[in-house]
Amino acid sequence: MSQTETLTVAQALIRFLGAQHLERDGRRERFFAGCLGIFGHGNVAGLGQALSQYPDVLPYHPARNEQAMVHIAAGYARQRNRLSTFACTTSVGPGATNMVTGAALATINRLPVLLLPGDTFATRYPHPVLQQLEVPHDATVSANDCLRPVSRYYERVERAEQLIPAALEAMRVLTDPAETGAVTLALPEDVQAEAFTVPAAFLEPRTWTVYRQPPAPEALAAAVTQIRRARRPLIVAGGGVIYSEATTALRAFVEATGVPVAETQAGRGALVSDHPLSLGAVGATGTAAANALAREADLVIGIGTRWSDFTTASKSAFQNPDVQFININVAGFDAAKLSGLAVVADARVALTELVGALGGHRAPGEWERRARDEGAAWAGVVAELIEPTPDAPLPSQAQVIGAINDAAGQTGVVVCAAGSAPGDLHKLWHARDPAGKGYHVEYGYSCMGYEIPGGMGVKLAAPEREVFVLIGDGSYLMLPGELVTAVAERIPLTIVLVDNHGYASIGALSRSVGSAGFGTHYRFAANGSLPVDDAAGAGLAQPAGSDVLPVDLAANAESLGARVIRARTIADLRAALSQRPAGGPTVVYIETDRYAGVPGYGSWWDVPVAETSTQEPVRAARTEYERNATAQRQFV
Ligand SMILES: Cc1ncc(C[n+]2csc(CCOP(=O)(O)OP(=O)(O)O)c2C)c(N)n1
Ligand SMILES: [Mg+2]
What we know:
Radius of gyration: 25 Å
Number of helices: 25
Distance between the termini: 61 Å
Helix content: 25-40%
Shape: globular
Largest sheet: 6 strands, parallel
Strand order of the largest sheet: 5-4-6-7-9-8
Strand content: 15-25%
Bound molecules: thiamine diphosphate, magnesium ion
């Protein structure tokens, strides 16, 4: 007779999760580093009890906000190249719906996270329970249904035996590089506590293997033909290059073929910046070098990219009338984009096979020289932008980035997500880590508030690296509470808090659409309306009462238990960054000039401007918008 154990559903799940392993290239490791959670009714008695019974099977870490805890898991999974992650448990209702944003972020960025929200009773006896969303026409709906569209797999486990197939499906999706994202197992609170007979095989160690899918021979042959024919080939490296650990293969391909490399946000650092064929960022936040070559390229080889509008400059980046695309991607969904040649394959295998099949073919020397010259010229632009200007009243964000880049050295990691910093980092960051793990900008969901919890996840995943979180004042205010988790877990992070008194990025965007920074500067509201931005209020009346608010974010960080250093100048900042945080987070606070932004370089982003307006600046912006939109292409 086969062996069994009698366990609650929650106990069986925790035991199962603790026994899951993932293997790639012969390296095997535990898939779950632990379980993050916040307890309430719906998980305290079920999963909470199970976690307390099995502390070594799946270590529990309390978080302060459910959204943030999913960000910790996502940051961790990304830094580990998706080879391991955390589970996240919540109570019913608000605890569960707080995870929706985190789940969307994970799914958009293709990062595995396992969500275990509590759910209302499967029996329905005591309904409605505290925090229950009642839908009069459909009793099967609960608040957790909000997680369906943002999950790559969703299941409500309504009876004990169902746990077994549900848990196996969850693992299949989490560990599949083409499918992965947020996976939700909604667990009714009565089911969690129910005991059932669990087959021992369910609890035994299990290994999920990530295979490196080779390209189909026909796809490889077609790609070789296109690459041989191309006069101006360009690679756009996405996050898939880094997740696949294909940075060495990419470099070998570049050196064998002379094809230059431009990078998306997730792919930034796929080729070290010092490489003569590195052009850096491409698209809306691209470098002059990458955008110049993108404009002329006749063949664009996208590797592990989902071709977001920032990468394609809203489909205006590629202007060669004959341009064609090759898309190397593990996901057929992404490989089919831009009417490209779909090469559904692992990045590393595909690049290696391509080098072999190309048999020493090189791109035209003139194109390669062009790339080298543009790349070298761009390095000069960066050097000027990050050079401190000690006489200016306030430092610029570019100068802050220069200081962080130096402090990070070869192995440090910069973490960022929203505001003006991601675009500046994309352009300016000098990537030094050959594995591409020094640059962690979450720009799939670009979620304000990701920065601190995401940075914590990175540090937990790579304790040997220094982690530098770059966060704006607006993003800081979204989820500062997770600093307390960093304090409690003794996570030594450096958080550079850049205060420019509001949403500098959206202020600039607002000015570009003719709206003078409306509602983007933190100041006292006047006459019931939000003030416009004083420095660019041309054409719009400036309401009275525009003083800076009496808000001290450095004191706020201090009150949450962080060590705080107030820097005024770039020299102060450099001194602060040379001190390594120990035993918990350090916040380095610095005020910057909200108008000293890094310009765009031959790029555009499609943000529709009002077609009619009584405001003259809006009408001017519309004319400009219509002119720019003529560069947009469809690639059918
Ligand atoms: C959760 C969330 N809400 C809104 C936005 C839209 N948004 C993008 S950047 C930004 C302002 C960010 O302000 P801050 O962190 O101070 O950075 P700054 O723009 O000043 O550089 C806003 C509101 C977002 N990305 N995420
Ligand atoms: Mg700001």
